Each structure stands twice: as structure tokens, then as C-alpha cells.
Amino acid sequence: MKIAMIGSGYVGLVSGACFADFGHSVVCIDKAAGKIEALKRGEIPIYEPGLDGIVAENVAAGRLSFTTDLVEPVADADMVFIAVGTPSRRGDGHADLSYVYAAAREIALAMKGFTVVVTKSTVPVGTGDEVERIIRETNPEADVAVVSNPEFLREGAAIADFKKPDRIVVGIEDERAREPMVEVYRPLYLNYSPIVFTSRRSSELIKYAANAFLAMKITFINEIADLCEQVGADVQAVSRGIGLDNRIGSKFLHAGPGYGGSCFPKDTLALVKTAQDHGSAIRLIETTVAINDQRKRAMARKVVQACGGDVRGKVIAVLGLTFKPRTDDMREAPSLSIIQALQDAGARIVAHDPVGMEAAKPLLDERVSYAASPYEAAAGADALVLITEWDQFRALDFGRLKEAMTAPVMVDLRNVYSREDMARHGFSYTSVGRGADDHGEVLEAAAE
Ligand SMILES: NC(=O)c1ccc[n+]([C@@H]2O[C@H](COP(=O)([O-])OP(=O)(O)OC[C@H]3O[C@@H](n4cnc5c(N)ncnc54)[C@H](O)[C@@H]3O)[C@@H](O)[C@H]2O)c1
Predict the structure, then answer these.
(1) Given strand 168-171, what is the order of strands in its sheet?
(2) What residues contact 117, with CB distance under 8 A and at least 6 apart?
């Protein structure tokens, strides 16, 4: 298959590289000239574990190339994927589809012969209809089938997710697209990843419904965590106790500072807007969005409380800035709101993140300073706040930290550590939803 991938960000680049790895011939296209120049030099513009190797191998094999100009690759392609951004539109929270529609116009002018145009970007129900309308209006001769094929990869594990998806969702209206879609995913299909064929509209909605459900699950356990704190229960025990029920499942049941990232915040909001526009409000998700928005500043209040009720003039060391570990993506990271709220309360912030500091700098107040290690960040700090659970922060040397800090105060917003351990190290310790020490894990460990 000859593939043109429009948009070479987290999704476009990973998908393009993986399709090339399956043996297809792929051209990744992006308007951002700097990104394409970097890729041509063999540099990967984003941090995604394993992506550099797979890109290098497929470039060397002649199956993967990069360009800013879509005309030739689109004319040549059997399939054109749209993987451009669909951020929240300023002002109203709807998905901003201007990049998708602009890409559709450009594709329409460049395509030759029968072409399958596949929307991989996350787009509201009905976008496929509009993409098809735009292509036919721009080029009445166009012989096109417009397909919806939402992407479910997670940053930080994107290659594995792309190559071993739980399912591949394909929404078609034109039967001619079925065979090429099976062909392009054949290696995964042979590995028993089911392909779910649906109508285009159902496929578009599947993506939003999936993300909204996961965001709701996280928000649910966050509220249970708050209740645990009030009633003297431990959210990790509750989470395990409910997660072992197959109907519930254990994933996305980790209490923390609220969801962030490039997908959940904008996708929940876009679903809420679509539903309202169609007179079918999804109040569960409206509430999920509202709870999550408030939660981030509530986490800052937790830090203030841990510091004795006042952080004015105090130094707070923040560990982890990206919205989750193993990515440099700062979009809607909880750290942004938490740091802002702490600065509003008069604190001085020293931050450390293993890969996200460059991406964070333009988004954070210029008074934030950056440290090269957790220990450098902790020097002279009145409290240490763990916001993103990078592996590097899972075995900190608390003796060393305590010596460096002004006060041994630790706020662990990811429940990485245990209260007993932290007490042993002489730290005052605050975590999320752990109103009581729990012995369940200890008993189970003994039984094993
Ligand atoms: N990031 C994720 O984990 C993830 C997962 C699943 C789905 N998605 C969805 O995939 C889509 C892309 O997300 P992303 O995180 O890769 O975005 P991104 O911002 O990292 O990348 C989008 C890229 O598209 C380029 N672009 C925009 N218009 C273009 C055009 N007309 N021609 C060529 N290039 C153009 C931009 O320059 C940018 O590099 C979004 O709809 C997102 O919701 C993202």
C-alpha cells in the first residue's frame, strides 16, 4: 500500500512509522517545516520511547520519508490518512476542525484515481460527511471513499499500542474502502486484533465515548479517594477491591490530581458540546468535566495544607511536569494549574522533569526555576510535591532529600510511596485518598 500521512505529530508519526514497519510505503507530511527538517536529519521531534529506532530502520529500508508538500505523495497514494490536530476551539470548547477541513481541501486538489481518505484525527460525529462534501465540492472529479479510523494509542506506550491494539475501529460508507482497510492493518489482524467495522458516524462516536468513559472512570475514583480521606479508608484498597471485578476492571482506577493530556480534556468537552447541540445532553460527562477542572486547584490546596496552611515565601519543589510519564507532552498537564495556584498563594517553584522541562518552559510563569535532578530541586525546599510518576521518582533517596530540604514535607499526588515508609524516613507525608493505613496488600504478600 502507498500511504500519505497528513500531520506528523504524536499520532501521524507513530502511525506512519508503524505502517512502514508493516511493509507499506509511507510519506509523512507536515506543514511545520522545522519538524520535517528535523525528521530528515534523523531527529525525532517528540519524546516517545522506541520511536527513533523504528523511524531510522524504515527510513533506511526506503519505506518511510518526510516532506512538507503533500501534492506528489497524495497523487501517488492508495490511502491518505488525516492525522492533524483537533484542539478545543477557543471560546466554546467545540473541536476545532479547521486543520482537518484545510487538509481535506488540499487532498481534494492533489488526489488522482480512486483514493481512500481516512480520518485518524479525533473528530465529532458528522465530520466524515463534511470531509467528503468538501472533497467533492473542491474536486467534482474526485473518486474517493472517506473512512473514519480513530486512533487509541497512548503516549508513552504508543508503538506497543499501535502494534497490539485491543481493537481497530473502521467506519465506512463506501464498500470499496473495506478491502484496503483490511489490507493496511493485515499484520495486526493476523495477530488477532479484531477489526470492528461500523458506519462512519458510529466509528466517530466510539472514539469520544471511549475517552469520555475512561475520563469518567478516573474522575469516579478521584471522588471515592476524597471520600476515603473523610472516612478513614484507603483508595488503593478500594480500587483493588472493585477492580478485580471483571465487569469493572482495574485500569484507570488510580486516584490522582485529575486527568490531563492532549486527549481527555478536549475530547470530553467536545462530546459535551456535540451532545448539547443535538438536544441530548450527557450530564455524566458534563459533571466529569466540572469535577476534573476543580480538582487541580484542590490539589494545590492540599499542598498548602501540608505546608501548615501557608506557602507565602516558601519554596516548593515539584517533581514531574508532563501530563504523564514517558512523554514530553505538556498539553493540559495538571502541573500547569497546580503550579499556577501555588504561585498565586505566594510560593516559589523549583521544578524537575526528566524530559518535559523544555516543553514546559513556554507554558509556565517565568518565575519558575528548573533543576537538573530531584535532589537539586529539593535543595532548600519547604516541601516536595510529586505530580508525575516517572520511574525515576519511584526510588528516591529520602535520606539525601531530607538533608537537602528545609523541611521534610512530601506531597505525593500519585500515591507512589507508603505512609509507613515515609514516616520511617522522618517525612510528614500527604497522599491522595489514603485516610487509613491499609493492611490488605501486606496480608496478600504474606500469603504468596
Ligand atoms: N496524542 C495522542 O495521544 C492521541 C491519541 C489518539 C488520538 N489523537 C488524535 O489525533 C489527532 C492528532 O493528535 P496529535 O497529538 O498527533 O497532534 P499534534 O499536534 O502532535 O500533531 C498534529 C500535526 O499536524 C500538523 N498539521 C496541521 N495541519 C496540517 C496540514 N494541513 N498539513 C500537514 N500537516 C498539518 C501540525 O503541524 C502538527 O505537527 C488529534 O485529533 C488527536 O485528538 C491523539
Answers:
(1) 64-67, 25-29, 2-6, 79-82, 115-119, 144-148, 168-171, 195-198
(2) 79, 80, 82, 104, 107, 111, 131, 135, 144, 145, 146, 147
- Of the candidates 311, 379, 373, the one whose C-alpha atom is nearest the C-alpha of residue 348 is 311
Q: What is the mean pLDDT of residues 230-234?
A: 96
Q: Which residues contact 307 (CB under 8 A, 6 or more apart)?
A: 314, 316, 382, 383, 407, 409
| Residue among 5, 11, 74, 214 to mutate when testing ligand 1 (max atoms within 8 A of CB) | 11
> Percent of the chain scored above 90 by pLDDT?
95
Beta bridge partners of 370: 351
DSSP string, 268-297: HHHHHHHHHHTT---HHHHHHHHHHHHHHH
Assign 213 a pLDDT band (cuts: 50, 70, 90). Answer: very high
C-alpha 339 – ligand 1 centre gap (Å): 27
| Cβ < 6 A, ligand 1 pocket | 6-12, 29-32, 35, 83-86, 99, 102-103, 121-122, 151, 153, 155, 262-263
Q: Which residues are marked as active site?
A: 263
Please give the share of the chain, as a percent, with pLDDT higher than 70: 97
Closest CA to 427 of 393, 395, 401: 401
Q: Please provide the average confidence, as pLDDT, over all residues in the chain.
A: 96
Which is nearest to 324 in space by CA: 211, 157, 207, 87?
157
Residue among 208, 326, 211, 215 nearest 274 (CA): 208
